[in-house]
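Risk register update: the risk of archive-format incompatibility is retired. Evidence:
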Amino acid sequence: MIRPLNPDRDLVDRSASVPVSTPVETPPTYDRLQRSVAALGLDIYGGFHPTAGQLRGFIAAAAPDIATGSETDSGPQGTLILLGTAPSFWPGFVTSPEYHDGRADPVDRWSSRVLGDLAQSWGAIPVYPFTGPPYAPFVDWALASGRSFTSPSQMLVHDRYGMMISFRGALYFAHHFDLPPPPLALAPCLGCEDRPCLNRCPVTALKEGGPYDLAACHRHLESTEGTPCLSTGCLARRACPLSTGADRIPAQSAHHMRYFHIK
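Archived output:
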């Protein structure tokens, strides 16, 4: 049996350029896991105790009990932890082999390597938002965690990172462990009078209740006026009051925007 990593030991440097290793017999807890992922430039974006129906099709190969369960299974089936980038992610990532090897999708490949090693050390199953189809329902999982909400523009807003969210993966643990309660009881958007997610987009691509006008967004990015969005990230997402919590480096946003707006 794979034994979980002891996150109290300094086994992983900030760049995550070496694999996670040396598992030890320490049962996972939320705090230990948080310290472990923080050393990689990641943060726990949320977690919950899912039902088999919320998991089926995405971890079935590694968890046959869930694969053969009933679609109506309603009892909790372990613990699912959602992971995303922290403010410290980009400085470490730019020292990684994926950043320098010139191949496509460096952030996704970094995520596969680092979260795969982390999952093995903790005895967990990794799930990624970029493998599919079918794609894992990260939006549904984020809402189920109670740490993300649907904004008026229909984009997700996180209680700490606002609309500057970058999910890198999830870890599924077959056993239950305690999770802290979400810090917000209600969606932060309910008390946001300015609603910048709706009024800061130069071409009104984000509308109340949706849908997202993707074509208008791409046309804007093709223009000279769209340069600020391309170089520093979506103006509407950055305008969310909670997005300041992401402390996002412009180079990181520019990288994601290049992949979003491929010419």
